[in-house]
Structure formats: C-alpha cells, structure tokens
Amino acid sequence: MQSSNHRLRDMEQHHPLLSAGADVETGSLAAGVMVGGPHAGHTAGNRTMWFIQDSCGMVCAGMTWFLVLYAEFVVNFVMLLPGKNFWYSLLNGATFNSLAVLALASHLRTMLTDPGAVPKGNATKEYMESLQLKPGEVIYKCPKCCSIKPERAHHCSICKRCIRKMDHHCPWVNNCVGEKNQRFFVLFTMYIALISAHALGLSGMHFFTCIKVQWNECSDFSPGVSVLLLIFLCLEAILFLTFTAVMFGTQLHSICNDETEIERLKNEKPMWERRMRWDGMRAVFGGSPSLQWCNPFTGLRLRRLLLLTHARRGGSEFSV
After folding, report:
1. Which residue from 1, 171, 313, 316 has the highest number of Cβ atoms inside 10 Å of its Cβ?
2. 8 A C-beta contact, residue 12 and residue 155
3. Tens-digit pLDDT profile for residues 130-157
4. CA gap 191, 195 in Å, rounded
C-alpha cells in the first residue's frame, strides 16, 4: 500500500494526520454485540449497541452491580426503614437511592457507549486514495486490527480495536475509557465515592444509635445478622471510596492536563495542541459548566432505545 504521494507505516506508534474528532467511516462496528442487520455499522444513521464480550469484564461488571444493590439493601432495610425518625429516613433514603441510580446509570453508559473505536480494516488502498493526502504526509496502520491509526489512538487487546484517546481498559465497567465515554466513567467514580461516603456515615450513626438502645429496636433483623451486614457494608464502602476517589482525582487531573493515562505512563511528548483546565473539561463534558455535566442521562434518547430494542428482536450480529 505504498504510492509516490504517501507511505503507510505498519507500526504501533501514533503520529497520524487524521484528526481525533474525524470519523474515518460513517459508523463503526462494536467489538462485541452489534444490534441490527449485517451492514448496520456501515450505513448512515445506524443504531448500534456497544458491548464487549469479555468474561472477566462481565463478571466484574456484575459484581459492581451486586455490591451497589447490596449497599441499597442494607441502607434501606437494615438502617432506614426500621428507624423511628421519619424525616431522617426519608431524606437519607431519597439521597442515597438517587445517588445509587445515578451511579448505576453512569456505569451502564460507560459500559454500553462506544469509547471511540476506529473502524476495523479501513487501511485499504481505495480508502487511502480517498483521503487525498499531500505529498510526503505519513499515516500509520495498526498491524493488529488493520486500521488507520488516528492521532492519540491506542490498540486495546481486550476490545481488539484501536481506541481514540484511550485512557485505560477498566474491567469494572467492561470497556475501555476513551474519547466518547470518559465523561460517564468520571461520573461513575464520583457517584460511587459519594454513596460510599454516605453509607459509611449512615453506618456510624446506626451503630451509635443502637448502642444506646436495644439492638432489637434498631432493626428488623437479629443483632448478629445486623452487625455482620453492617460490617461488610463498611468494608465495602471503605474499599470503594478509596478506589473511586483516587480514580476520580486521576481522571480530573488527566482531563485538565489533556493527557491520558497511557500517554503519561509512556511519557509521550505531546504532538497535539493541549486543552488545559476548563477547555479540557468542556471538551469532555460538553458546553459551559452546568448541572448537565453531572447528568448521565444527557444525550440518551427514548426513540433510540426503542429502535435498539426493536432491532434486537429482529436478531443480533456478533463481531469481534
């Protein structure tokens, strides 16, 4: 694939001439389940659902949901509902459950959103000629997925695709964190950290209250069962709070410095114009600072979900 006007370098580096925001095809196929017909990923206006078929990632994602739902069970049925203070239970229950819903919604958006996958096998002679490259310009091909590598893209061995602005692959969301879903991953870590801190605070208050009175009056469960459930919740909350708070801070630092975790670890020199601080935040979260930045449902359209559901009934195609 070499002509007098340009060269195609079959390397694993990335200094291409394609912009990070430009799609090399109208759509892209998901590395997992693609809902729709055989050619849905290549047609305009396509509707695809991204899902990675990785056994380890699916187990980790399932564990995440189980632990969040476990925390909801303990908070609601062990601590709040048996409580005698109606307003205390109502306010804390509404707050905790709202944050839990936002955390799970952010997890789903992170897991089911295409992180910025480069279409597979687009490094063809015909497509390269359509790019109309200038003499001497160099583009790079990924030897693993046979794709033209955009700037700042890296190949993920689990997703088996090159991902634009890939930060890392997170098994807990069973997906890469990249250009298109980093916002939801940041929200996920933030909301998990908040409900973990809230659960720790509620557990401390519950222990303090139950010490003053009989344990049978504090919960509908036996004292031994209640203590075991609360201890496990506290351990879970401490681990989740530590992990997600660190990840949240790391992600914000990367966004404000316009540098992914892979670029930092590889100590790559920036070949792009950096977006610093608020410019980087706007690029990831979109628009000026507002409450919409904290909304994981932004951009989620009911009509699109109905189309995906209808397409799934018609059959699904599995691709790698």
Report:
1. 171
2. yes
3. 777 777 777 778 888 888 888 888 899 8
4. 6
